[in-house]
Amino acid sequence: MVDSYRVQYNYFVDSKGTEFKAPWNHIANTPRVYTPADTAIQTPNSDTPYSWLGLNLRAEPIVLTVPEIEKKRYYSIQFIDAYTFNIDYAGSRSTGNDAANFLVVGPNWKGETPSGMKKVFFSETLLLMPIYRVQLFDASDLDNVKKVPAGLRRRCRPSSANLLPGQRRQLISLSRSPSKHRRPPWSSSTS
Amino acid sequence: MEFFNILNLVLRYCPTDPSEVELMKRFAKIGVGAGQSFDAGGLSPETTKAIEDGRADAWADFAALLKQFLTKGK
Fold it and tell me: By CA distance, what is B38's nearest residue in A?
């Protein structure tokens, strides 16, 4: 759990660090293959373009939207919770390659699922790291792969954006709300 | 031992599973849990030794697994 949070701290919290990807609840695309310069995660694939997302479900559930992805191209979203359990997958082998919306909800959430959700993913923890992987056929294929994250971008959004005000209150009231996120003890930065 | 305070931070985002209530009560005795503060300097010598021994056990287990992996390839 601590080492997993170390990765999340590097990717989603330490905005001045060299490994920083994006703030919590924002997708960061890495439309290239990993090299030895990428050191936060011990053994990433070096032939797989990734997109990264650190989810904080404290306030409300989150909707993930994926574009239609060509049938021959494998992709997956691996959901890893704060215990480092692989709780579920979305993608070619589970939910298919069609365009879809997925609702990701935190512990004890009991709200109604908004319409248009292909699947609901339940997490036992409020912090969650979905990892997106998209198949790269060969080096010349990279430009095609770059189009996939373009479809993912800006589509991670609070589910309240799709909901009526009354529904939004319902979602928030049913989410757990521990106190505000604190900086970890090893951080001396004041940003 | 700052490890445990990072763990405490992450545990704030992990509501206790019903099967782990007793486990978390045990952890709380040494300041491990959501909202807890771990103070290595405030532990009794016996508790400090027990934690260090536990860490030594874990490294021994790890070394044995590594040896098994390197000699048998699995």
Answer: A185
Give the Cα separation of A15 and A106 in Å (integer): 25
- Of the candidates B6, B13, B14, the beta carbon closest to that of A185 is on B6
**Alpha helix (H) residue ranges in chain B:** 3-11, 21-28, 45-72
The model's pTM:
0.79
Q: Is B22 on the interface with A (CB under 8 A)?
A: no
Q: Which residues, 6+ apart, have CB-to-CB distance to B37 below 8 Å? A: B5, B8, B31
Among A128, A129, A130, A133, which Cα is nearest to A45's? Answer: A133
pLDDT digits (tens, 9 = 90+) for A98-145: 999 899 999 978 778 888 889 999 999 999 999 999 999 988 888 888
- What is the distance between the alpha carbons of residues B30 and B26, in angstroms, rounded to a whole number? 8
Please state the domain extents for chain B.
Answer: 1-43, 44-74
Structural domains of chain A ordered from first start: 2-33+44-174 (2.60.40.1610)
For residue A2, give the H/E element and its range: helix A2-8
